[in-house]
Amino acid sequence: MTNYLTPEGLEKLKKELDYLKNIKRKEIAERLRYTVSFGDLKENAAYDEAKEAQGFLEGRILELRELISTAKLIEKNYTREVQIGSTVLLCSNNKKEEFQVVGFAEADVFNRKISYQSPLGKIILGKTKGDKVIIKTPKGEIEYKILGIK
Length: 150
Fold this sequence. Notes:
Layout: E1 3-5, H1 7-36, H2 45-69, E2 71-73, E3 87-92, E4 95-102, E5 113-115, H3 119-124, E6 132-137, E7 140-149
Parallel strand pairs: 1-2, 4-5
Antiparallel strand pairs: 3-4, 3-7, 6-7
Helix pairs in contact: 1-2
């Protein structure tokens, strides 16, 4: 699967990787050294917890390295169609919402970034200003009108 990222999204992942490798790793290593001093490792819950945290950290570092190395940067092409990287102004039930269509690794609904693989992202890709789309949700169908694309 192609990993699409905006330049901002790539930079954010690089900063997170740097933080995890250079700061968080040292914190967990120190925590491990401290918990080893408690004695018997077989019954040392603090040590087990620190080892688990280390495992999650190393997993996230591997994940970030993979995302960064396989990233395909999204170029801002100002076209009439919604594409990955587009910011889209939608209207539904007289309520306007603006979203940026991004790759899965950068998706963040709270910051108005939706994956092109999400139900809404899939349905608006390739559409143009003025088009209407209907998305099915558990609560019924929602109709959106595309008011603008940038």
